[in-house]
């Protein structure tokens, strides 16, 4: 079967006269540029993750390439801290190489990102489609750049999307990236990327690596351990690639549209990415391969076999390695991302607030958020824990007991803003307020609470999604009269009264129900990360 890819820019001139089309699949395509309008057209309903870092792999790579202890640092977390240098070229590469204790194996990656995403059926090329307001390709870059032993990442994009790509690199602070112009087919784009790496000259920013990883820009969930496995296998065998079991049986139709034969599913595998090669092997293969291969080929491993007699080692990959191809894949990717960034909830409270209802709330949260790690901490010290939380956690519930002011929430918000946590993922902050609606008619306090809209609007600009949660709490049964002064002169909140019970026992049961409801609301806010709730006051 033949097919033809088209991309914009001068590379189009490379198209051979004998280019053919893949019947029933694709037609010659115009390259597509990213523009605000186009991105806006696609913007999917906001669904949601962090690409979890596997740091164990770096150690294994060091083991493969004997070197000084600590020769490989663990992968960086899936985000950068404030003030991290913005590197849009590979300028840091040589320094990394020269540093003592670094790996002796030089590894670079080529990311073909010059396609137009015809099967996605939207105007924006799929690698630029937004997921949680961030282009898909940025997630893939993040997954690669946090692997410390990948020195350079060459991204291949069409000329018309070059500027859009630069601004993505700037906005999300990607590092170690070099841009190269795409070709009209995927193979041609990859060849352009390899060419850039092959120019190992003193004044050239890129150095020729020993091993090169090739990975599609539209496979965002690549983990360090599979990258490591293919690199190790490529070092030993010359070529290696990730595979998955086939989901469906492959059949071959005959010209009349009837079944000719079918393959025995268990004997075949789907070829996925990443793949890795000794650079000299894959570069030689691309230099020698025919125009036909460059136009219609789909398999880099095949080129290594055909032109360098190199049999690739096949490595079992994870299901998340699939390639974002259809529109529904964007929703799947968003769900995976949301799930990953919702793995931890930090409940912020004062240490002196170890009050009964708060411990009930923590318990209810732990029940509700089954697989979520619920941690709690106080603001104020810049200890390692706080630092860790501000680097790894994307969900916060800030508990305010019997107060309608936002002092504590505001403090948390400014810490989050300073930390730059929200550059890569939307951070959810729920300002939780325990009130005794029975004792005090809400008024000025409520007016205070209304400020949440203003705060929310402000922090939304920094990708922080703030909303409020009121929890009705009658202290009559626990600590009568302790907070009677809190709600003096509050006018218009009678409708928020949720319960008033006759006996302490009933009170307690009601409180449990209310707290469970509060936990359900917090869980939903974290999971959905919906813009619809930004600045809203919810009542449990
Ligand atoms: N001329 C091309 C064509 C494709 N690619 C890249 O190769 C990867 C895998 O290709 P594919 O999924 O086929 O992407 P598209 O060609 O964009 O999609 P479609 O086939 O639906 O048009 C993608 O990251 C794509 O951007 C590329 O760099 N240059
Ligand atoms: O499938 C692959 C592995 O062999 C490649 O990852 C690549 O995505 C193929 O691209 P295309 O969809 O253009 O055939």
Task: Write structural notes for this entry.
The protein is α/β, with parallel strands linked by helices. 34% of the residues lie in helices and 17% in strands. The chain is built from 17 helices and 17 strands. The protein has helices at residues 36-42, 56-64, 93-98, 136-145, 162-171, 186-198, 224-237, 279-288, 291-296, 300-308, 327-341, 356-368, 384-392, 407-419, 444-450, 452-460, 504-528; strands spanning 107-112, 130-131, 134-135, 150-157, 177-181, 211-214, 239-245, 251-253, 259-262, 269-278, 313-316, 344-348, 373-377, 395-401, 427-435, 464-472, 537-539. The strands form four sheets. Strands 5-4-1-6-10-7-11 form a seven-stranded mixed β-sheet, with helices on both faces. Strands 13-12-14-15-16-17 form a six-stranded parallel β-sheet, sandwiched between helices. Strand 16 (464-472), helix 17 (504-528) and strand 17 form a beta-alpha-beta unit. Helix 2 packs parallel to helix 7 (224-237) and helix 12 (356-368) crosses helix 17 (504-528). 46% of the residues are buried. Ribulose-5-phosphate is lined by residues 186, 216, 271, 273, 298-299, 323. The site of ribulose-5-phosphate (5RP) has 7 residues, from strand 10.
């Amino acid at each position: 079967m033949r097919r033809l890819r088209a991309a914009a820019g001068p590379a189009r001139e490379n198209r051979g006269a004998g280019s053919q089309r893949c019947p029933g699949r694709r037609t010659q395509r115009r390259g597509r540029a990213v523009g605000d309008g186009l991105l806006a057209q696609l913007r999917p309903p906001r669904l949601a993750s962090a690409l979890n870092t596997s740091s164990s792999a770096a150690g294994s790579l060091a083991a493969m390439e004997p070197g000084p202890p600590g020769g490989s640092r663990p992968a960086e977390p899936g985000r950068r801290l404030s003030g991290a240098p913005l590197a849009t070229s590979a300028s840091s590469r040589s320094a990394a190489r020269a540093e003592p204790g670094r790996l002796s194996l030089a590894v670079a990656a080529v990311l073909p990102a010059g396609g137009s995403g015809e099967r996605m059926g939207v105007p924006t090329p799929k690698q630029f489609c937004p997921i949680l307001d961030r282009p898909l390709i940025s997630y893939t870059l993040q997954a690669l750049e946090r692997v410390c032993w990948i020195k350079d990442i060459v991204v291949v994009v069409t000329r018309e999307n070059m500027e859009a790509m630069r601004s993505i690199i700037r906005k999300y602070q990607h590092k170690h990236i070099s841009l190269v112009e795409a070709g009209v087919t995927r193979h041609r784009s990859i060849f352009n990327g390899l060419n850039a790496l092959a120019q190992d000259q003193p004044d050239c920013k890129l150095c020729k690596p020993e091993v090169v990883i090739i990975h599609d820009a539209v496979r965002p969930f690549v983990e360090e351990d599979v990258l490591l496995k293919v690199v190790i296998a490529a070092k030993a065998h010359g070529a290696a690639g990730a595979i998955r079991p086939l989901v469906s049986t492959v059949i071959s139709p005959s010209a009349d549209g009837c079944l000719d034969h079918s393959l025995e599913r268990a004997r075949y595998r789907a070829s996925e990415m990443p793949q890795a090669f000794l650079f000299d092997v894959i570069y030689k293969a691309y230099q020698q391969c025919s125009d036909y291969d460059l136009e219609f080929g789909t398999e880099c491993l095949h080129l290594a076999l055909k032109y360098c007699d190199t049999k690739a080692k096949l490595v079992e990959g994870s299901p998340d390695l699939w390639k974002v191809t259809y529109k529904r894949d964007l929703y799947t990717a968003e769900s995976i991302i949301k799930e990953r960034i919702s793995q931890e909830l930090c409940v912020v409270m004062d240490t002196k607030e170890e009050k009964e209802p708060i411990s009930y709330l923590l318990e209810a949260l732990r029940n509700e958020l089954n697989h979520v790690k619920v941690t709690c901490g106080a603001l104020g010290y810049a200890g390692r824990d706080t630092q860790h939380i501000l680097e790894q956690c994307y969900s916060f519930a800030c508990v305010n007991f019997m107060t309608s002011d936002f002092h504590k929430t505001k403090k948390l918000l400014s810490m989050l803003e300073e930390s730059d946590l929200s550059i890569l993922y939307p951070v959810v902050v729920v300002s939780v307020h325990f009130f005794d609606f029975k004792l005090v008619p809400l008024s000025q306090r409520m007016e205070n609470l209304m400020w949440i809209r203003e705060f929310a609007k402000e922090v939304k600009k920094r990708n922080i999604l703030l909303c409020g949660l009121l929890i009705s709490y009658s202290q009559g049964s626990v600590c009568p009269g302790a907070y009677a002064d809190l709600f003096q002169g509050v006018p218009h909140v009678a409708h928020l009264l949720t319960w008033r019970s006759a006996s302490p026992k009933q009170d307690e049961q009601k409180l449990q129900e209310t707290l469970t409801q509060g936990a359900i609301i917090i869980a939903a806010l974290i999971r959905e990360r919906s813009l619809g709730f930004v600045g809203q006051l919810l009542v449990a």
